[in-house]
Amino acid sequence: MVERGGLENLSKVLTHWFYYLF
Fold this sequence. Notes:
Structural class: mainly alpha
Largest sheet: none
Shape: rod-shaped
Order of helices and strands: H
Radius of gyration: 9 Å
Number of strands: 0
Helix content: over 70%
Strand content: under 5%
Distance between the termini: 25 Å
């Protein structure tokens, strides 16, 4: 999964995962 907005996507995904985990 490598796109132009990969960093932004990763940031959003990480935030979502954090909210989901905690």
